[in-house]
Amino acid sequence: MAQKTIGAGVALIALGVLVSIASDSSSATSLIPAIVGAVFVVLGLGARMRPAIAHHLMHATAALALLIILGSLGSAIGRGSTGWALFAQLGSVVIAGVYLGYAVASFRRARQARSAE
């Protein structure tokens, strides 16, 4: 799961940088996906380096993914975003949603494996 976390982080970083460059934005808010992606990468690397606490770090990334989904959807709907802002928000929702799906499936498999023992 750590590899998927790092992959989601890299995708969020790429999204943030792409939107910032393409929109020629000087605002730091266009880099929010990249900042959150960097947190994902750090947590994924931490899970690789410290397997004893990997399950805690993966739960943290799942919670962060849920916050990304709720925040991005709330902002897109509440503000009526358009253009590059909407693209960044929907891209963040898709990346975080796919990641959250993998995380939940991983947590379920781990629970089933513990129950089988």
Structure description:
The chain is mainly alpha-helical and 117 residues long. The protein has one domain (2-116). The chain has helices at 2-22, 32-49, 54-79, 83-116. The longest helix has 34 residues, at 83-116. The chain is elongated and about 55 Å long. The two termini are 21 Å apart.
Structural class: mainly alpha
Q: Total number of β-strand segments? A: 0
Helix amount: over 70%
Largest sheet: none
Low-confidence stretches: none
What's the N-to-C terminus distance?
A: 21 Å
Average pLDDT, to the nearest integer?
A: 92
How many domains make up the 3D coordinates? 1
Radius of gyration, whole Å: 15 Å
The shape is: elongated
Helical segment count: 4
One letter per element, helices H and strands E, the order comes to HHHH
Strand content: under 5%
Any chance you could write out the topology, listing elements then pairs?
Elements: H1 2-22, H2 32-49, H3 54-79, H4 83-116
Helix pairs in contact: 1-2, 1-4, 2-3, 3-4
Short description:
The chain has helices spanning 2-22, 32-49, 54-79, 83-116.
Keywords:
elongated, mainly alpha, 117 residues, single chain, 85% helix
